[in-house]
Amino acid sequence: MVLEEGEILTLNQQEYIVIDVVNYLNQQYAYLISNFKPLDVIIAKVTIDNDNLSLEEVEDKKIIEEILKIVSIEE
């Protein structure tokens, strides 16, 4: 299983759109934006085990800052 940009995922019982997936310190992270208003932006740690995808919202501000430096957002 590969996480793709544009995919819609459910996290915390809400739908989010995958904007970008990046690797940081040998860990995959997803930059997600809500599919509802008001817009919510989340950085989530991605774990794929035997084709089972799990997402865990990142709360560490240092990791969030580093991920935001490398995400690719088209203008």
Walk me through what this model shows:
The chain is mostly beta strands and 75 residues long. The protein is built from 1 helix and 5 strands; from the N terminus they run E-E-E-E-E-H. A 5-stranded antiparallel β-sheet has the order 1-2-3-4-5. The protein is globular. The N and C termini lie far apart (28 Å). 12% of the residues are buried. The model has no long low-confidence stretch (mean pLDDT 90).
Largest sheet: 5 strands, antiparallel
Q: Determine the N-to-C terminus distance.
A: 28 Å
Q: How many strands appear in the DSSP assignment? A: 5
What is the ordering of alpha helices and beta strands?
EEEEEH
What is the tally of helical segments?
Answer: 1
SSE topology:
Blueprint (H helix, E strand, L loop, with lengths): L7 E4 L2 E11 L2 E8 L6 E9 L2 E6 L3 H10 L5
Antiparallel strand pairs: 1-2, 2-3, 3-4, 4-5
Please give a quick description of this structure.
The chain has 75 residues and is mainly beta.
Keywords:
5-stranded antiparallel β-sheet; 75 residues; 1 helix; 13% helix; 5 strands
